[in-house]
Amino acid sequence: MAYDLLPVINDTTARFLEKRCLLTPIVGQKRKISASMLTPPTPRSPSPPSSSSSSRVSSASFSALSVGQEVEEVEIPADLRSKETFEFLGFDDTTAATLWQRFLDQPADMGADIINFARWQVRYAGSPDATSATDDWDGCMIKMGLTVWLRQAILLPEYYEIRFTASCSYWVIEAMEAQWETLQVLDSRVRMVQARIQHQARVLTGRPKAESILSMPSQPYSSGRKPSRPLSSSSSELQPQLQEADPTSVEDQNRSTLTVAAAVDAPEKMQQHTMLWRAGFKWRHEGFYDETTGNINLAAISSFPGDFSGERKLPYFTPQRHTADRYAQWLKHKARNTEITIAQVALDWSWVERLTTEYIWFTSPNNIWKKVIFNCRRGLPLPDELEDLEKRDILIGHIASGKNVKYERLTSYEQIRDCLSVEEEGHATKAIQWAFQTRKARQDFETHCKGKIWIHSVGTFKHSHVTKDVTKMGES
């Protein structure tokens, strides 16, 4: 199949970054980029966060912030459509070569992209899928053709319990989709960095710019989501973004090329409100909440099948900050080049009380929780005896665990034996989730929660604290 070359970073920006030692030339269809290009440096917590130490919540409130590896550079593929991209997603060299050849051999009218072949490989090569503690997870991932680092990340013992809330293929595909999105938006991100460097150089030297990023075309995107804030072609529209991103003093401008990510400061508690939390990828949370307009789109974070949704996509949150924190920590390991964020939402109880809510606990009478999990986790509709539950606006209950069961093999809800427990300050607590089930609940959420959502960045696993003198990066 003939295909168009699509560099991960456009040639003009690549030359600009190479000149400033932020990007290496291409060697073997790969290049190395400064880790600071992947995510802004985030403030590190000097001590372990404590839920009782402050009445405010910021990135430093989460243990996930300290999870990671400090590096100076990250290896990336030179072209988006390439064997090297399959390796970046998490496949070993042999499997990457095989998938690349399949990509090249596909019929001209097929139109499948790299991520499509990655999903197919994971779903079918890894069959039968691993789901419970009795399954050979590593053997399953070896059949998928995964590289060592991704296999080790998924098998980390400290996230043993969380692993069984979904299948092996689910976690692998989630990680690969995140890595793929990172590559797709990287060109837009580094072009903004280039614009910032040029702007800072003009402020410091007063010299006219030697080259303008405003005249550069945006990179085309063959699939996936385009960046939520593409670089504007209008200098009047670009300038406020630069002013917001740039330090406010010459002294600060001399300190670092990349602005440290502004720490979002939010209340830990609000009167007559309940706080909900959700860990996820930054690009997905950007689709969920537009911090500029305040618009909310729950569809961007909805999924199925889930514990309470066998056939419909529903958005899930947890009222437990430590549960979201644990998920965020593991996400950083699995998608090591993708920025992870934790969404915080304040729900007004005066609104919640007007909705119909059903509490479904592991110990609920008549085994209601087990019956719901038994059907939904197998992608089936609820039985007739539970159809009234589908009319409830909100479902609140424990998170299921597949540690001791394989849901697809169950013949009865009575075979379900446990739910997820998460460590909090040395004690195991049952993890809780909220699902906004009805259309009315989701529409009301998008209205009533406007202005009451905060997105906390906990950075990428591979991150950099290196700062560079802007005066040495300015235009010459």
Kindly describe this structure:
Strand 12 (about 420-425) and strand 13 (about 425-430) form a beta hairpin. The protein has helices at about 10-20, 85-90, 95-105, 115-125, 135-145, 150-155, 160-165, 170-205, 235-245, 250-255, 280-290, 320-335, 350, 370-375, 440-450; strands at about 30-35, 55, 70, 75, 265, 275-280, 300-305, 315, 340-350, 355-360, 395-400, 420-425, 425-430, 430-435, 455-460, 460-465. It is globular and about 65 Å long. By secondary structure, it is α+β, with helices and mostly antiparallel strands. Helix 2 crosses helix 3 (about 95-105) and helix 4 runs antiparallel to helix 8 (about 170-205).
What's the helix and strand layout?
Blueprint: H1 11-19, E1 30-34, E2 56-57, E3 69-70, E4 73-77, H2 83-89, H3 93-105, H4 114-125, H5 137-144, H6 148-154, H7 160-163, H8 168-205, H9 235-245, H10 250-255, E5 266-267, E6 273-281, H11 282-288, E7 302-303, E8 314-317, H12 321-334, E9 340-348, H13 349-352, E10 357-360, H14 368-376, E11 394-398, E12 421-424, E13 427-430, E14 432-436, H15 439-448, E15 453-459, E16 462-463
Parallel strand pairs: 3-16, 10-11
Antiparallel strand pairs: 1-4, 2-5, 6-9, 7-8, 8-14, 9-15, 11-14, 12-13
List keywords for this structure.
disordered C terminus; three-stranded antiparallel sheet; alpha+beta; 476 residues; five-stranded mixed sheet; 15 helices
